[in-house]
């Protein structure tokens, strides 16, 4: 009952050139339903490569990627894009919110693009903003919010399409330590309350220790 399963995943950059770089080799990794897994990796160990492969943004050279038990290996781009939109939520170190839209609009718009009705999209946005303590910021633009508030809105946006799996790359990495801890608490509460599965890359060992399991990447 794994939401995500990587089997024997390998990736080599510049494979045809004079100096190929093997980043991942024979990697097995799974995230069970409702499980929150920390991904800890020194810089250059292939954390971004792994997240891109799990997020169906890149394909491995060897091995297989299963999402919800479905083999995604070799699916056409269109099917991968659809699976990405339907089953995955993404959070990055930087929020990537649309600056000209309000917090609520940033959460509503991706849902509309996925065919959710405006009424349902608005209801979900209101509910999510309430859960992260930002009801009073619904009509504010990103520039009118603090870094921690912006990141909390980004969490709401990632969850708005009710994904099966959240992929996060240093979700509190650009915040000062104190804010980072608080915002991370909000993320964990949100993940637990919604029963979401998550793979969360972090350099912060204290944060990693609070997840269900830690996967350490070492140089291949
Ligand atoms: P991390 O996120 O852990 O720092 P990455 O997955 O970004 O690691 O990269 C791992 C290694 O692969 C690094 O040595 C990086 O330079 C190399 N690499 C990443 N992308 C490419 C690419 N497109 N072409 C060649 N080398 C790459
Ligand atoms: P464990 O807790 O079982 O010791 P780790 O957390 O150390 O496992 O790593 C998780 C899995 O990922 C292990 O199977 C390990 O061998 C594998 N692994 C770690 N780094 C890499 C890498 N760069 N390429 C391929 N597999 C890796």
From TrEMBL:
What is one Pfam family matched by this protein? ABC_tran
Q: Which SUPFAM superfamilies match?
A: P-loop containing nucleoside triphosphate hydrolases
Q: Which biological process, per GO, is one annotated for this protein?
A: lipoprotein localization to outer membrane
Segments forming domain ABC transporter: 4-220
What Gene Ontology molecular-function terms does this entry list?
Answer: ATP binding; ATP hydrolysis activity; transmembrane transporter activity
Recorded superkingdom = Bacteria
Q: Where are the transmembrane segments?
A: none
Q: Does the keyword Cell membrane apply?
A: yes
GO cellular component terms attached to this protein's record: membrane protein complex; plasma membrane
Q: Which CDD domains match?
A: ABC_MJ0796_LolCDE_FtsE
Q: Which PROSITE patterns match?
A: ABC_TRANSPORTER_1, ABC_TRANSPORTER_2
What InterPro entries does the database record attribute to this sequence?
A: AAA+_ATPase (IPR003593), ABC_transporter-like_ATP-bd (IPR003439), ABC_transporter-like_CS (IPR017871), ABC_transpr_LolD-like (IPR015854), MacB-like_ATP-bd (IPR017911), P-loop_NTPase (IPR027417)
Q: Which UniProt keywords apply?
A: ATP-binding, Cell inner membrane, Cell membrane, Membrane, Nucleotide-binding, Transport
Similarity comment text for this entry = Belongs to the ABC transporter superfamily. Macrolide exporter (TC 3.A.1.122) family.
What protein is this chain from? ABC transporter ATP-binding protein
Q: What is the species listed in this Swiss-Prot or TrEMBL entry?
A: Paracoccus gahaiensis
């Amino acid at each position: 009952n794994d939401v995500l399963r990587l089997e024997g995943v390998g990736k080599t950059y510049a494979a045809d050139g004079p100096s190929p770089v093997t980043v991942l080799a024979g990697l097995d990794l799974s995230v069970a339903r409702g499980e929150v897994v920390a991904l800890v990796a020194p810089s250059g160990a292939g954390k971004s490569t792994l997240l891109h492969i799990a997020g169906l943004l890149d394909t491995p050279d060897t091995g297989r990627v299963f999402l919800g038990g479905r083999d995604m290996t070799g699916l056409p781009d269109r099917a991968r894009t659809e699976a990405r939109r339907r089953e995955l939520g993404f959070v990055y170190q930087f929020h990537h919110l649309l600056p000209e839209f309000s917090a609520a609009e940033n959460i509503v718009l991706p849902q509309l693009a996925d065919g959710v009705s405006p009424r349902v999209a608005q209801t979900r946005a209101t509910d999510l903003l309430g859960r992260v303590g930002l009801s009073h910021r619904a009509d504010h633009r990103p520039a009118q919010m603090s870094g921690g508030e912006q990141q909390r809105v980004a969490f709401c946006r990632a969850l708005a399409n009710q994904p099966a799996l959240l992929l996060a790359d240093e979700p509190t990495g650009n915040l000062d330590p104190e804010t980072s801890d608080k915002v991370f608490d909000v993320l964990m509460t949100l993940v637990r309350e919604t029963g979401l599965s998550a793979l969360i890359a972090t350099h912060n060992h204290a944060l990693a220790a609070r997840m269900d399991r830690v996967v350490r990447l070492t140089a291949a």
